[in-house]
Automatic annotation (TrEMBL):
Belongs to the D-alanine--D-alanine ligase family. It catalyses: 2 D-alanine + ATP = D-alanyl-D-alanine + ADP + phosphate + H(+). The active site is at residues 17, 153, 288. One of its GO terms (molecular function) is D-alanine-D-alanine ligase activity. InterPro entries: ATP-grasp, ATP_grasp_subdomain_1, D_ala_D_ala, Dala_Dala_lig_C, Dala_Dala_lig_N, PreATP-grasp_dom_sf. It holds the Pfam family Dala_Dala_lig_C. This is D-alanine--D-alanine ligase. Mg(2+) 1 binds at residue 264. It comes from Jiangella aurantiaca. The keyword Electron transport does not apply. Binds 2 magnesium or manganese ions per subunit.
Length: 321
């Protein structure tokens, strides 16, 4: 294995998901120290690039979530600094982070994703909210899911079960970003499938089934211990389990992702998997989904993180060579 030298874990940032990122960073940094690596954790702030130039790490594990963390920005900075890092290239991050764009790309590859519409706040203001909302319900039916087209952790996401709930859901969504992605609700089993590639090609980990006590896997249900029940592996039959794994790997490859990703899906009553989101910087907190899948696969988080770092260094050396 490549000598990794000094590892920098980046966490924090200024997105709405800052607190989650800090928790992810702490957990991965601790796991890496437990397997003997020299690890520094620092925030992503205005001094970052100067710090990278004057105190150069050997490899970086970015664990920034949301804007600037998953939209290709921090990856672009690390590329400009000439540093190897875990994760996808900037262009691939941008594709995956923009949900409507990612949905269009995977749909062309034959992956099912819920019917949807994308509307900006300006469109509602200029063309009339009432008429547009009526058209949304007529086309997509109810229930609906309203969420920002860029972002994560379910911030700004609302499940709309009646037409009179839709205006408030749009306001909530626009508070976190725009345009809004309005999707048809798919009834079924919610699962997340993590994909890893440590140099031998992408492979899917066991699917994690998500059963929030509130019925909605919102921010509170994601990061408050005891509010969501998880089943790993998911309670799917063999055919459905194979299907969600295949979809997650196909999405990872179709979008040109590297190292790790997490695909969120709904398996409907007929066993059909519907892709909801693709995450290029999955959470690593105590309640996050990827670490649960890692444990179910009989892997150690620290060892896996070390392997991802080694793969990133090897990729960087091959590219430089």
């Amino acid at each position: 294995m490549t000598d990794l030298g000094r590892v920098l874990v980046l966490a924090g940032g200024l997105s709405h998901e800052r607190d989650v990122s800090l928790r992810s960073g702490r957990r991965v940094a601790e796991a890496l120290r437990e397997v003997g690596l020299d690890v520094e954790q620092r925030d992503a702030d205005a001094d970052l690039l100067a710090s990278l130039r004057h105190d150069v790490p050997d490899v970086v594990f970015p664990l920034l979530h949301g804007v600037s963390g998953e939209d290709g920005a921090i990856q672009e900075v690390l590329s400009l600094a000439g540093l190897p890092y875990v994760g996808s290239a900037p262009a691939a991050c941008r594709l995956a982070f923009d949900k409507p764009v990612a949905k269009a790309i995977v749909r062309r590859a034959g992956i099912a994703t819920p019917p949807s519409a994308v509307l900006s706040q300006a469109t509602f203001r200029e063309l009339g909210a009432a008429v547009l909302l009526d058209a949304l319900v007529a086309r997509l039916g109810l229930p609906l899911v309203v969420k920002p087209s860029r972002g994560g952790s379910a911030l700004g996401t609302t499940v709309v079960r009646s037409a009179d709930e839709l205006p408030a859901a749009m306001v909530e969504c626009f508070a976190y970003g725009e345009p809004a992605l309005i999707e048809q609700w798919i009834d079924g089993t919610e699962v997340a499938v993590s994909v890893l590639d440590t140099g031998e090609g992408p492979r899917a980990l066991p699917a994690v089934e998500i059963v929030p006590e509130s019925g909605t896997y919102d921010y509170h249900a994601r990061y408050t211990a005891g509010t969501t029940e998880f089943f790993v592996p998911a309670r799917l039959d063999g055919e459905a389990a194979a299907a969600v794994a295949q979809v997650a790997v196909a999405a990872h490859q179709t979008l040109g992702l590297s190292d790790l990703s997490r695909t969120d899906l709904i398996v409907d009553r007929d066993g059909v998997p519907w892709l909801l989101d693709i995450n290029v910087a999955p959470g690593m907190t105590e309640t996050s989904l990827l670490p649960q899948a890692v444990q179910a696969a009989g892997l150690d988080l620290g060892v896996l993180a070390r392997e991802l770092l080694a793969a990133a260094v090897d990729r960087h050396l091959r590219t430089a060579g």
